[in-house]
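Exercise 4. Each item below gives a protein and its sequence. For each, produce the structure-token representation.

Item: thymidylate synthase (Actinopolyspora erythraea).
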Amino acid sequence: MSDTDEPHESMRVQAALAPVSFPRFHDAYVAVLKELTSRPQHQITAHGRSGSERLNVSFQLADPTARMPLLTTYRPTVVTHLAEALWLLSGRNDVAMMRHYAPRLASYSKDGFTIPGAGYGARLFRPGPYANGRTAFDTALGLIRAEPDTRRAVLPILGAHEGSDMSCSIAFQLVHREGTLHGICYSRAKDASRGLVADVYSFTFIQELAARLLGVRLGTYTHHVGSMHITDDHQPRIDSLLDEAMAGEPSPLRWSPMPSETTLEMIDEVCAHEQRLRANLTVHTSWSLAHTGLPRYWQSMIALLEIYRQVTYEPDEHVIDPELIEMLDSAHQWMVRHAWPSRMPPLECSGLAS
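Answer:
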């Protein structure tokens, strides 16, 4: 090999060793579904369900804030994924909260009260018995503050003595380099159609929160999956998702970043609002949200929960409050509009993104 060939060989090796990079999750999601549909490595049967599988799938996101696929045929809604992220941040693993947003999750509970496998918030955000009152999340941030280049800021999820309800995700790692915080999720297996979206949403949310608490820039998000799979019974829905993706996509939409002044106390306040809205014990307007004293970003997250309250508890009422919709960035406006089209105000009244 000549000297002139060496840089090209080095670049090829570097590219081969690195995960495929995408600007946002929408693009990664479509690529994963296309690969599993058109180029599966294995046809497998597990837990009585057959499906397609690819081993050792990895991808990277340049912008972790763009954490949802923009597809009208994708269900569940962004509110479900927001609620699950708050569920985890609250250190919960109970059925009661998530049954309101995703009733199917209750079927994963063996005792009717908890979901240990999916409810890994209890492992990451609840103080452990041997952690001096600190959570795994607190410990990871402490390691980074003490040694910015540490390789030990890992939030363990999979326990050594897991039963049959084994977590799909094994661990989440935070890596601080040169003033930027990167996130890496390791999963033993992942259902690409829905489970992947839920995990990417939650872990990028946790990564962004960690970056704000540390006062550093938000970096890339990488996801490694041992067994990426889809089941045959989900294939018709996946075909619809891919048909929509191939037909085109929305014009570029804005995803608002989490504000730099975010604190854990703000998260607690948002969770308190969620609890009251879930029980239909309070009603929010743009005026009441402005008077919470929270940054606009967190007001908009509560606005999403209020919109869901209106859809859930006022099914026969008038359209959703247009001022609440106007509080959302254009990406969330788009998702809300397509999730509940019959409840939307006229475009000229709401300024909704098309």
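Check: The chain is about 40% helix and 15% strand.
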